[in-house]
Design brief:
8 helices
């Protein structure tokens, strides 16, 4: 009897928090669904390595990394906004919240539109013209959307998979332990990462140079 309708009203802040929780739930559900796809991408990478096709293996792992990283970053952004909305005057972050919700929806659409479902994953191994066109399209999409760190993570995963494939193909191969006093690998890994970054930069510049009628840069080690 003492209750009024105003006591049951949901504020804009409450609604925003609920919307962000729902958006994060959708992202988490999607992350679980694409596990089937990312597992298949890993298998494709192994199959490509087993037949000596390193470039397709790398493309499969880059595609996988792009999806996983995009979903993880979006979820982290929504989590931060959710915390801000709970702890700060809502009016100060309302625009950011609206933008964050829009981005969350856009990310799911982007992954589905650009990467496709499980049927598209199989095209990563294809040799016909349709498959090669899809492989070129994915490579171009990923070209400017992955950080050097993400690219390095992919190459590290590729190296690890290559070791696994070699172990399967050459089970009797002897692996010698590092000699005592051997310098740590950090320095060698840093050199490797820098070399990879230079190679990626050259590969990204070459299509632009060719489009302007310039001779491609020589491929240096």
């Amino acid at each position: 009897m003492g209750n009024t309708s105003s006591s049951h009203k949901i504020s804009a802040q409450d609604r925003a928090i609920l919307d962000m929780k729902n958006q994060r739930d959708k992202l988490h559900q999607y992350q679980k669904r694409i596990t089937v796809i990312t597992d298949r991408e890993t298998d494709i990478a192994k199959e490509c390595l087993a037949r000596g096709d390193r470039s397709k293996a790398l493309l499969a792992l880059r595609r996988k990394k792009f999806q996983e990283s995009l979903l993880a970053r979006t979820d982290a952004q929504l989590e931060t906004l959710e915390q801000l909305t709970s702890n700060i005057e809502f009016a100060l972050v309302q625009k950011d919240v609206i933008y964050g919700l829009q981005q969350g929806t856009a990310v799911l659409k982007q992954i589905h539109t650009e990467m496709g479902g499980i049927e598209h994953v199989e095209k990563l191994m294809g040799e016909n013209e349709d498959a090669r066109a899809y492989q070129r399209e994915v490579s171009e999409i990923l070209g400017g959307k992955m950080s050097n760190q993400e690219e390095d993570d992919v190459e590290d995963e590729l190296d690890a998979l290559e070791s696994q494939v070699r172990a399967v193909n050459q089970p009797d191969a002897v692996i010698y332990p590092a000699a005592p006093g051997t310098a740590p690998e950090d320095g060698a890994n840093e050199v490797k990462r820098k070399a990879r970054a230079r190679k990626r930069a050259r590969e990204q510049r070459q299509p632009q140079a060719q489009a302007h009628g310039q001779a491609p840069e020589p491929m240096l080690a």
